[in-house]
Design goal:
Blueprint lengths: L7 E4 L5 E5 L4 E6 L2 E6 L8 E5 L2 E6 L4 E6 L6 E3 L6 E7 L2 E6 L4 E6 L4 E6 L7 E4 L4 E6 L5 E8 L4 E9 L7 E7 L2 E6 L4 E6 L6 E4 L6 E2 L7 E2 L2 E6 L5 E6 L2 E6 L4 E7 L18 E5 L5 E6 L4 E6 L5 E5 L37 E6 L5 E6 L4 E6 L5 E5 L9 E2 L8 E6 L5 E6 L4 E6 L4 E6 L19 E7 L3 E6 L4 E6 L4 E6 L19 E6 L6 E6 L4 E6 L2
């Protein structure tokens, strides 16, 4: 069986294992060495489940509800009312208890009456729940990027007591599950790739499992381990490939074969500086024409930054508002200029972004173009003044061509310029399309893609794409893009009007080799080596690797 980012697991009284196969939207059942699917449709990003008797209860997170199904499969039944991003779920007697991340509450569902109600709330980034007995419940929460909190809740009075409050560390980071065993509380920290335990008073905290948030061993290419590479770019004057990985920037020298750390730390936050004191929050990078500066779209810090490739010192360019803020409900947009240190909203004169996901610099090194993904916009930045200008998009998601400020996009993920610097090509992820913006007229057109997902090679009118995520333009007519939805790398020649497969079998995996047999696991950033343009480098995100394919 093949799973895609499974988030939840539960075991019934007979030892059968149930898995929330989150990104596939399915529920799997494992008995011995046999895997079956008991729910194959009707779910959207299910994150957790629990088994009570012959019934499996599921947090149908993407649909904001809880549903139930028989252990052997069957029709889904809705349980309780509408919930706000339900995640973890457990039960006690005839009640279900659901962690709702959207409003920081625990909700109770009465299975006898099929009704739900707010049980206790007021948590920040609530992530785990466990019930000790009729008197006590434990809850893990804490502002992401800052605190890890452990509460007990008196079930008769609904009174919360803070048992512990610890600063976030690389491993103690973002609670996402909880269980009780032998009078200890076990907590999964998904941001830290670790499991910690504490006694029932919240004391004696111990790390039970987990070493690094992501791999981070640097040295020769043969021994280096990099975690979650997603953006890569070549130095135009030196044999050096730069990569953004797990909130760090690294460089790979193809002559020496060495990988070196530059700046950042696996713990995401916002700090300017040098080396390991710097903090990013999912950075994307491009480079100046002279190779002296890396320009950074710091996605969850909602800011644009730069770093000297010589001194490794970072500097602020523009952007204001929240820092290290991931919420899908975040809303911020304003054209303006730099307001260094401003974390408030709607300040006059300040530029505001909403999850800028990618950046590209023009040939003169004077302007940068950014996919302001959360605003469904493309923006321009004057790199000397930090002032911004809207190129295209309306903030509302859509799929409309025409004059830039009236055209619409849906979660634009990446962008690149053609060799002439005249056209901006956009991986319009949510529209499953490649779009083009003529920078002289701001006219937006669709290069390839029909607005619906699928895999089909063909012409502009017939080809289907599935979640294009990274893009690289070669010359003025050859476009390469990665598809996180189909696990493929594809290409399109604007002169021939035909798409072709470059690499990827369509199955998740690690295999290298012939293009149709090779495998990826969420391919993202792409980069063609500038020396002779003979190779395409690919950031293979969940495989924690950078792969290379021949263009000859």
């Amino acid at each position: 069986a093949t799973l895609d980012n499974p988030y939840g697991v539960a075991i019934d009284s007979r030892g059968a294992v149930y898995i929330a196969d989150t990104y596939n939207g399915r529920i799997r059942k494992v008995e011995g060495d046999k895997v079956s699917t008991i729910v194959s449709k009707g779910l959207k990003l299910p994150e957790a489940l629990t088994v009570r008797g012959d019934t499996v209860y599921i947090s149908d997170t993407g649909n904001n509800r809880v549903v139930s199904v028989n252990k052997n499969g069957g029709k889904l039944q809705r349980v309780g009312g509408v919930l706000s991003i339900p995640r973890q779920i457990t039960w006690n007697q005839d009640k279900l208890y659901v962690v709702c991340a959207g409003d920081g509450t625990i909700n109770e569902i009465n299975l006898s009456t099929n009704t739900s109600r707010r049980y206790v709330g007021g948590f920040e980034d609530v992530g785990g729940i466990a019930i000790k007995d009729s008197r006590t419940m434990f809850v893990a929460a804490g502002k992401q990027g800052v605190w890890n909190e452990l509460f007990s809740v008196d079930r008769s009075t609904k009174t919360k007591t803070l048992l512990s409050k610890d600063r976030e560390t690389e491993t103690l980071n973002w609670a996402a599950g909880m269980a009780l065993y032998n009078n200890r509380i076990y907590i999964i920290y998904q941001g830290g790739a670790s499991i910690y335990s504490a006694n029932l008073e919240g004391e004696d905290m111990r790390r039970e499992a987990g070493k690094y948030r992501y791999p981070k061993i640097f040295g020769s290419a043969a021994v280096s381990q990099i975690g979650r590479p997603h953006s890569i770019v070549w130095n135009p004057t030196k044999p050096i490939l730069y990569a953004a990985i797990n909130n760090q920037l690294i460089e790979y020298n193809t002559v020496s074969g060495k990988v070196r750390f530059m700046a950042g730390h696996p713990m995401d936050n916002y700090v300017e500086g040098q080396g390991s004191s710097v903090r990013f929050s999912n950075p994307d990078i491009d480079i100046s024409p002279d190779g002296n500066w890396l320009y950074i779209a710091d996605q969850y810090n909602h800011r644009i930054r730069k770093m000297s490739t010589k001194t490794k010192k970072t500097e602020y360019i523009t952007g204001a508002g929240e820092v290290n803020f991931y919420s899908p409900n975040y809303s911020a947009y304003q054209e303006g200029g730099p307001c260094d240190g401003e974390t408030g909203a709607n300040k006059s004169g300040c530029a505001y972004f909403n999850k800028p996901s990618a950046i590209v610099v023009n040939r003169a090194g004077t302007k940068a173009y950014v996919t302001d993904s959360g605003n469904n916009m493309l923006r321009e930045i004057n790199l000397s003044t930090g002032k911004t200008r809207k190129l295209a998009g309306t903030r509302s998601a859509g799929f409309k061509n025409g004059f830039g400020p009236l055209a619409t996009f849906n979660g634009p993920a990446d962008l690149d310029l053609d060799a002439a610097g005249a056209n901006l090509y956009v991986a319009d992820k949510g529209n499953h399309a490649i779009r083009r913006i003529n920078l002289a007229t701001l006219n937006v057109s669709t290069v390839v893609g029909k607005g619906k997902p699928g895999y089909q090679e063909g012409s502009k009118k017939t080809a289907l794409l599935q979640m294009p995520t990274g893009i690289e333009v070669r010359g003025n007519n050859m476009i390469f893009w990665s598809e996180s939805g189909s696990q493929r790398i594809r290409m399109y020649n604007t002169t021939e009007n035909q798409t072709r497969l470059f690499a990827g079998s369509g199955k998740r995996g690690r295999l290298t080799g012939p293009s149709t047999r090779s495998q990826f696991n969420e391919p993202k950033g792409l980069a063609i080596n500038p020396k002779d343009g003979s190779k395409l480098y690919i950031a293979d995100y969940y495989n924690d690797s950078i792969k290379v394919g021949s263009l000859r």
